[in-house]
Every structure is written in C-alpha cells, then in structure tokens.
Write the structure tokens for this entry.
Amino acid sequence: MAHIFFQLGSQSDLAREELYSVFHTEMEVLSGFAFSELPQQKVKKRFDELGGIIRAGIVLGEEKNFAGIQQSIIEHATQNAKNGKKMKIGIFIGSKQGWKKFGIGLQKAIKLASKGNEYEENKFSVRIVNRNAKNLDSYAVHKEKLLEKGNFEYVCIPLPTGWAWGISINIQKSFDFATRDMKKPVRDMNVGLMPPKLARIMINMTRDKNGNLPAKIYDPFCGMGTVLLEGMSLGVKIAGSDLSKKMVEATKKNTQWYFDSIEHLAISKEEKADKYIQWKKSPFFLRDIFIKDATKSFTLHQKKKIQKSAVVGEGFLGKIFHKPITTKQYEIQKEHLFPLYRQFLFQLSKENISSLVFAFPFWKGKNKTTYSFVAELLEFTNKIGLSPLRSPLRYIRDGQVVGREIVIFKKI
Ligand SMILES: C[S@@+](CC[C@H](N)C(=O)[O-])C[C@H]1O[C@@H](n2cnc3c(N)ncnc32)[C@H](O)[C@@H]1O
C-alpha cells in the first residue's frame, strides 16, 4: 500500500465519485486533491481508464512550511541523481499564487544544490523543464519523459496544516481524449457535443462493486457517438440508438473510424491485442447502432441488442441559449423536454439493463439562479423503480448556459 494523491479535474465532485466507483475506497479530499491508501500497481493499471483525474502520485512527506518541502525535495533529488546522467525535473505547485511565491525559489534551490558543496560532493546534473514559471501540462510531462526512471515531477500540495509533497506516477493522456474528440470524421457543433472526459467519468460510474466495467454500454441518444467512443476505448462492447437517421449514420462513421484506428487505445500492447481479438469475435457492433425514438418501447430485436447493458448517455438538450435564460424560456424548455425524459425513463424501466447513469440538462438563469426539472423527474422515477443512488452531480463549463445534471441510478 502507498499513500496516493489524485489531482482532481475541474469538475471535482464528479472526479471524486469516479474515483470511488473505480477504487471503492473512501478518500480524503483537500485543496483539489484526493488522498487514499492504495496499492501503487492498482493505481498505475487503472489510471488511464479515468476521465476526471489529472495526476496520480505517491505522497512522500508532509511539512509545516514550504521550506521543509524544499529541503525534502532537494534531499530526494540528490539521493536519486545518477552520476553523469542528466536528470530531468518538473515542478508542480498546487496553489494559485504558487509559482511566484514558491516555485521560483524551489527551482533556484534545486539548481544551487545540484552544484554540490565546496568539495563538489553531492554534485549532480539537472534540467528543470518548467518554463515561464508555470506548472506543466500533461503533454509536456509525457514529452519530457518525467514519469520515466531517473526523472521526476515533484508535486507540492498546500494543506490546511502545511504542505504535502510527492512524485507523479501517472498523468492524464489528454491528447488521447482530444484525438477522439477532434479527429473523428463527423462533428457538428450545432448538436450539443458531450465532453469525452465527462462521458468517460459516467461510464466509470457504471462499474460493479469490484470496480469492474460492464460488458456492454448502450447510449439511447447516441448523437455523434461520444459516449460510445469512450466505451470502445475502455474495451467494452457498445450499442447506440438515436431518433435521427443522420445521427445514427454519424455514430456509425465515427465508431468505424475508431475501430479502424485501434492504436489510439490508451492501453498496453498486450491488452490492445486482446481487445482486438475480442472486438473481432463479437458480432460487428455497427449492427447494434440503430434508429429509435427513446420514448417508444423496444422491439424484441432491439431488446436483444441492449440486454444487460449499462445505459449511459445524455439526452436532448433542447433549444441552445447563449445568455442566461428567463423563467418563461425555462418553462418552454421544460414543456418540451420533461415529457420526453419521463417517457424515456418509463420505457427503460421495463428493460433488462445492468445500471443507468444519465445526464439531464439544467440552465443558468439571471443572478446566479439555475433551472432544473431533475428533482421532479426523480419523484416520478422513484415510483417506477428507478431511484437515484445519491444526489445529482452537476457539470457546467465556464461561459455555458446549459449544464448537465448527472444521476446515478441504483443498480436495477
Ligand atoms: C445532446 S445530443 C447527444 C449528444 C451525444 N451524447 C454526443 O456527444 O454526440 C442529443 C441527441 O438526442 C437525439 N434525440 C432527440 N430526441 C430523441 C428521441 N426522442 N429519441 C432518441 N433520440 C433523440 C438527437 O437526435 C441528438 O442526437
């Protein structure tokens, strides 16, 4: 067991819930980081499957003040420096004004220490790769090979009682998410595209109590296939449907493209080979992407395609707004969308599915108010055997009027 830290992404409540679904252990959350005792190998193995976590690493110590941290990091670097070989170091400061106040000093102190004492003892060769007094993004950490043997990214985390420090062992491969998002052949900005990391978080929320993923996921509002691409990247089978023929075609094109570019998978070579065999063996998934109105019942043929799947998706978001909405505008949205969701959930409640994680829209109003019909919807679903496991979690990006309210329904 190691004392592990996780740097939570911007939607920290969702990230925390995702960690719980994957590792099934309580975490202490402080300053945007979650802490827990976990086997390091398990964290390494599962990390690339996460959507909401930016970094994971091992906590190596705690100090009352930053001077103590600086001292500990210098000792660690000195001990780990290999004679002759240039060591690369990255510095991550987890506080807002961190770089000016602490980072620059730490950078200088490491440089100075690398020169050794007057007898040239403890001298080592180091390059600190941060530029412009800033933390590194995931691309830079990978490019500089900071997670490889002999190099380190030192992470300094402010705590209410002082500081913790440690080294990164994993960092999110943001470019893998970006590739799936930007390079897929069909994209349409007019259809509310779901952020791939959110899709990934939601899929992870369908894991069973041992942390295992479902065998198959089904998205009943598949749009351009964002959820399904994330499912594929995790190696699970997929099914999807949408009311619009155009969207079904788009999902088919996008999933086919991803299937053909299997090397994008964020997993090891051996696992890739396994998944490839598994996908090839399974009935070709394009057959499981079909046109369907989510408010209507499933035909026998469709039932077979979605049987025992975990259902993950986001529904129709309604009219797109660019400014906070008025009560009147909300009422019109609700009039259109509430019956759609109610009917959709009613149909789903009759099916043999393994779990359900769904994103419903909510909207920003004026003066920091928000509008949501999810509470009212849940009053209805409770009556038909779909109860939420916990209170809904909200996701909203800066500057957007529409957000998502994510509900994890109890295993059915
Ligand atoms: C917000 S998009 C889903 C986006 C998708 N998750 C993605 O990222 O590509 C909503 C989708 O719901 C579909 N839709 C709207 N009403 C529907 C209904 N009654 N049944 C099934 N799909 C519907 C639309 O065609 C649209 O593709």
The mean pLDDT is 91. The first helix runs from residue 12 to 23. DSSP finds 13 helices and 16 strands in the chain.
